[in-house]
Amino acid sequence: MAQSPNELTLREGKPRDIPIVQSFEGLPENQGVVGAWSKEGHLRAMHHADYGYLIVEVDGKPAGFIIIKGVEAKDIICVVRIIIGETGRGRGSKALRALKALCFERWGAHRFWLEAIGGNTRAQRFYEREGLKHEGVFRKHYHLGGEWVDSIIYGMLPEDYEASKKSEQAQVSQAL
Ligand SMILES: CC(C)(COP(=O)(O)OP(=O)(O)OC[C@H]1O[C@@H](n2cnc3c(N)ncnc32)[C@H](O)[C@@H]1OP(=O)(O)O)[C@@H](O)C(=O)NCCC(=O)NCCS
Fold first, then answer.
1. Are 22 and 42 a contacting pair, CB within 8 Å?
2. Which DSSP letter does residue 12 get?
3. Closest CA to 158 of 124, 118, 107
């Protein structure tokens, strides 16, 4: 069946996708904002039963990726890394909404959480808009670009997920 234009999908990442994942990690704007692993590091994580790799595709072409941890038990899911290549086009929202639905609706997760670097205010706005709650700060937790930076913790419980879905539906009906 033909895909509609701008259709965003998530598919499972395989070892052959590692160059794609590394190309997003290597974008100049992502340096010091998100982590990056070697090919061996990605292979180790991909072969670890608790990690999941999701390739974000738009119209069948790679547009970003998400690495999650916690897929063995599926009750507490951590987003280890999310990178969208062309930012500011709503792709991150669509990808995160698809991931939240997978975690809460299919897997019945009890908690969904992630960390953002203190200076990454764009990502922090993004997570708050998507209904994640600011849960705390690990002060000066990572050494990045020659300085110690804070790690900001965001989390979502099933009740937060339900509230975020209601607010998305309200935004859609307001826009109609
Ligand atoms: C954080 C990230 C995943 C968000 O993904 P994204 O695709 O940029 O997210 P969205 O487009 O849905 O929303 C981001 C911004 O675009 C705006 N936007 C959404 N849809 C849009 C559209 N169709 N056209 C223009 N702008 C749009 C949003 O209002 C938002 O604005 P803001 O930055 O002023 O708050 C992405 O920016 C990214 O990969 N950043 C680099 C890596 C990173 O920081 N990862 C997170 C580590 S914790």
1. yes
2. E
3. 107
Report yes or no: 50 and 70 within 8 Å, Cβ to Cβ.
yes
Residue 2: the pLDDT is 54
Q: Report the distance separating Cα 93 and Cα 106, nearest Å.
A: 19
Helix/strand/coil for 57: strand
Which protein residue's CA is at the shortest distance from atom 28 of ligand 1? 88
Ligand 1 pocket at CB < 6 A:
30, 33-34, 82-84, 87-93, 116, 120, 122-123, 125-126
| Rounded Cα distance, 17 and 32, in Å | 23
The tokens for 61 are 């072409």
What is the pTM for the complete model shown? 0.93
CB atoms within 10 A of CB 161: 20
Structural domains of the chain in order of their starting residue, each with its CATH number: 8-175 (3.40.630.30)
Residue 145 confidence (pLDDT): 79
Determine the pLDDT at residue 176: 72
What average pLDDT values come out for the chain (176 residues) when binned by 10 residues?
78 98 97 93 98 98 98 98 97 98 98 96 97 98 90 98 91 78
